[in-house]
Write a structure and sequence with these properties.
Blueprint (H helix, E strand, L loop, with lengths): L5 H8 L11 H32 L8 H4 L3 H4 L11 H5 L3 H11 L3 E2 L2 H11 L4 E4 L5 H6 L4 E2 L2 H4 L1 H9 L12 E2 L2 H8 L3 E5 L21 H5 L4 E7 H4 L10 E3 L5 E2 L7 E7 L10
Parallel strand pairs: 2-5, 3-4, 5-6
Antiparallel strand pairs: 1-8, 6-9, 7-9
């Protein structure tokens, strides 16, 4: 006597008896397309979140200015400049709050008393200048000239990108001179160049670059000074072209920034370069 397979057949045809697939072919195609697009959207959202968090350090969007306004009194002077605090002061601040506050106030690397002391020891009384100074928080504490291209407040593409990601631009204070990095170094001829969280010049996106066509040509800068000191984060700056040139790398617990992975905060130091580095172009 053959086995009764009618029930099995029904379960295979429709594993969920409470739901019946639409009989119309167009509706079935539309439903399938809907689920494919939904799956693709979920995948895209995860990809964007990972990419932006790792590479551009976009901050938590669920936090608003009201949520982190309490940090103004802790971190800012009445002039709008960052207070110079020890790294221990930042350790007590929630990382998500700190990153959101930085995003809303145009800050990237945050100078600490330890960082300033370390840099002053490296400068050792030599002439120095800060390029890409942004708000000028670091150079001011070092007592050196501060220069910036003002890209984040004058370049429409940059302004639009920051607005899209709900980030405030790094608005230079009055004592920051409007001057691009190469001009600043050529004109002043410093022996030491300081940079913090400065994006290198790159090709346009359509040519395979990052699109930052206004960034400094770091190879030219390195060929015009004795020491080039860069403060940044490995996840963001670890693949810069200049790292092909021999250099020193330092990691300290007192390095503070808006990075998603603060344990990757780093200082790169190039010394003794006396010729243009044409091979990097």
């Amino acid at each position: 006597m053959p086995a009764n397979t009618s029930g099995l057949s029904r379960r295979l045809d429709n594993p969920c008896p409470s739901w019946s697939p639409p009989q119309d072919r167009a509706k079935r195609v539309s439903l399938r397309l809907f689920w494919l697009l939904a799956a693709r959207r979920r995948w895209y959202d995860k990809l964007v979140d990972r990419t932006l968090s790792a590479k551009t350090c976009v901050e938590p969007t669920h936090l608003t200015a009201k949520d982190v306004r309490y940090l103004d009194g802790i971190l800012l002077e009445p002039t709008g400049r960052l207070r110079l605090l020890p790294a221990s002061s930042y350790a007590s601040i929630d990382l998500l709050h700190l990153r959101a506050w930085c995003s809303l106030n145009g800050r990237y690397g945050l100078p600490t008393t330890e960082l300033v002391a370390w840099l002053k020891e490296r400068i050792a009384g030599r002439s120095a200048v800060e390029i890409g100074a942004g708000c000028g928080d670091l150079g001011f504490r070092l007592g050196i000239p501060m220069t910036d291209s003002f890209q984040q407040v004058t370049d429409p593409a940059t302004v639009g990108m920051l607005a899209q990601f709900r980030q405030a631009p790094a608005t230079p204070l009055p004592d920051v001179e409007p001057e691009d990095a190469e001009t600043a170094v050529r004109r002043r001829k410093p022996r030491v160049v300081i940079a913090s969280w400065v994006a290198e010049r790159s090709k346009p996106k359509e040519e395979g670059g990052t699109g930052n066509v206004h960034g400094p040509r770091e190879e030219d800068i390195l060929g015009r000074c004795e020491s080039y000191i860069f403060v940044g984060n490995e996840a963001v700056h670890g693949k810069k072209r200049l790292r092909r040139v021999p250099h020193l790398m330092f990691k300290y617990p007192w390095l503070v920034s808006r990075a998603r992975k603060p344990e990757l905060n780093v200082i790169y130091l190039w010394e003794g370069q006396t010729m243009p580095l044409k091979q990097l172009r």
